[in-house]
Amino acid sequence: MRLSRFTRSRKAARKQSSAASFRTEIIADVFVPEYAEDVRFFSRKVINPGRLRRFSTRDLRESLIALFYLAVAAALPVRWWSPICDWASRFRLKRHMCKDFRFYAAATRAVLGDGIDARKLFEALLAARHRRRMQLAAHLVAGRWTPTIRLEGLEGLQAALQRGHGAILWCDQFTAQTIIGKRAIHEAGIEAHQVSVNTHGVSETAFGQHFLNPPMVHVENRFLKSRIVFDRDDAYQVTIRIQKMLKQNGVVLMTNTIHAGSTFTETDLGESGWTHLASAPANFAARGKTALFAMSTFEVVPFREYRAVLSPELMPAAPALPAVDTTRDGAKNMALQAHYILLKRDRLLQALKQCPEQMMSWSRHERLTEAQDRIGFSEEEGS
Prior knowledge:
Blueprint: H1 10-14, E1 21-32, E2 37-48, H2 57-75, H3 81-89, H4 93-99, H5 101-112, H6 118-140, E3 148-152, H7 154-161, E4 167-171, H8 177-187, E5 192-197, H9 206-221, E6 226-230, H10 235-247, E7 251-255, E8 263-269, E9 273-278, H11 280-287, E10 291-301, E11 305-310, H12 334-354
Parallel strand pairs: 3-11, 4-7, 4-10, 5-6, 5-7
Antiparallel strand pairs: 1-2, 2-8, 8-9, 10-11
Helix pairs in contact: 2-6, 3-6, 11-12
């Protein structure tokens, strides 16, 4: 008897999903008296690592886009680049509106209030993401592009390095951070190490990791002293390497992505939103004397002017500092980490209010334990 075409075959049932699956559990809710609010800590453990796909339709699309922008960078003057990115961003607008806009609008309105024009911000984000692709192409075409990049807050970083215990720059996922942020630090004479994931780039397929991601990694590495590739299987060894670099008074860049680590945090953001922040930067700062800074990079005039901003050093209030002495060396001090998390949250909110249309990753309009939808619109992880 013929099977109905709507019946799932046994072969399909056995086929492993390409997406990894995780078990997320609440570790603790830590109350911070100075803020009169809680920071929730989560653990994130892999249940199924997923299947590595060889190729996807997105790979084809990204390949064509990359070739297109390389041709634009090589053949056309800079003044044409931004209009071309705006034009290209509208090609798949209808699909993005159907698939992603509802989640994006809910997240942005929860943080910034109902008075914002969510559709205008969404369309501006799509254009900014295309300009991000164009930034990569411009760096691959030698000798054609010399934008103005201003770095603010360098004095605070230099003062912290004089203490000799290293520094962590906790970077936000604005569209200009991936390349321009690293370039700003490099041009200021700071040799930095980047904590990254082995799938960093535009694709997680085998094809993407071999052909699409390496150009971005190559360009970023021009502005880095080294890249520390994070892998769940050797997280302990990566932690040891980071500690060693900090003891050598090094500067380590960490991008705020919760997808690589085994723990992350949740705290409220803005009007009624919730955001997820990586716990690793706060953990390193809480363990010892490492200085912690927030970093955001903004596009002021497309392809002409950029602004990289280092916050003043994130330092918990005095009552929280003695807690460091009450824990054994290397132990996690969650109360102190929670202070760092909220300090970072405040800097993130300030940055979001300046350039919300350039933020690639928005979290939720509801708590993770209550959510029925996915984390906000972000197809790429910056690092």
